[in-house]
Amino acid sequence: MTTIALIGAGGKMGYRLSRNLKDSDFSVSHVEVSEQGRVRLREELGIECVDAEHAVPDADVVILAVPDTLVGKISHQLSPMMESGTMVITLDAAAPFAGHLPGRDDLIYFVTHPCHPPIFNDETELEAKKDYFGGYKATQHIVSALMQGPEESFALGERIARTIYAPVGRSHRVSVDEMALLEPGLSETVCATLLSVMREAMDEVVRRGVSHECARDFLLGHMNILSAVIFDEQPGAFSDACNKAIENGKPMLMRDDWKRVFERDEIADSIRRIT
C-alpha cells in the first residue's frame, strides 16, 4: 500500500484532500500545525494528526497542501527527512515553475491542479450542481505534470490526483511550463481579471439606475448563451449588432499587446509575485 504524508491536512485545500483520501486505497498520515485544523479533522472526519517527523520519513509520497508562498520553505524543511525516490506532489505550478523545490535529483516531483467543474455540465443532483469548486460531488477535469522522475512514476501521481480531486472526468498531461500558462496565465491573469471587470460593469449599470436583481439576471443570462456560442457548446452566430459591439468595444477594453501576458517572462513575473 502506498503511504502518503499529507502536509497541511487541515487547511482550506488540505481538508478537501483529507476527506477524499479518507476511504481510499492509500495509507495516509495527516500533518497539520494549526490547532483549529487538527480539531476540525478530528471532529468532522475522525482523523488524528501526527508530526511531520513521524509522517515524512516513511512516506512514499509527500503532498504539500500549503499556500504557494510556503511551498519552498516547507519543502526545504522536509527534504532532509525524505528518502531517495520519494514523490513530492504540489497542487499548483507556481512554486515548481519558480524553482522553489529542493534541488534533489533523487526525488520525484509531480504537479497537479484541478480544472474545477465546468460551466456546461450534465450534473442533475442539487449538491453536485452547487459544487462549484469540485472535489466533492461534481465531476471535474484535472491537469498533471511529471516535473522530474522516471516515466513510470506518472501513473502513481495521476492515480493520487484522481483520488484527491474526485470525481474526475478527463485527466490532461501537460508540462510545468504549460501548467503555468493555464494558471496564473489563462485562469487568473485573463479569466479572473475579465470576470472582475464584468462585475464592475454590472455594478456601474446598477449605479446608473438599473436594479441589482435586473442587472444580475441580464448579465448572467447573457454570459450563459454568449459563452455557449463562443466556446462551441452549441452552434450559432452572434447578430451583426453584437459583432459590431465587440469590434468597437475590444479596443476600448483591451490593449493591442494584451497577449503578452502569456510570454514566459510575464508568467515568471506573475509567479514571482504570487510566491
UniProtKB/TrEMBL annotation:
Keyword Oxidoreductase belongs to the record: yes
A Pfam family assignment: PGDH_C
Keyword terms, alphabetized: Oxidoreductase
Domain of life: Bacteria
Name of the featured protein: Semialdehyde dehydrogenase
KARI N-terminal Rossmann domain residues: 3-88
InterPro entries reported for this sequence: KARI_N (IPR013116), NAD(P)-bd_dom_sf (IPR036291), PGDH_C (IPR031663), Preph/Arog_dehydrog (IPR050812), Semialdehyde_DH-like_C (IPR037161)
Nucleotide-binding among keywords: no
Organism: Litchfieldella qijiaojingensis
Domain annotation Phosphogluconate dehydrogenase (decarboxylating) C-terminal: ranges: 121-275
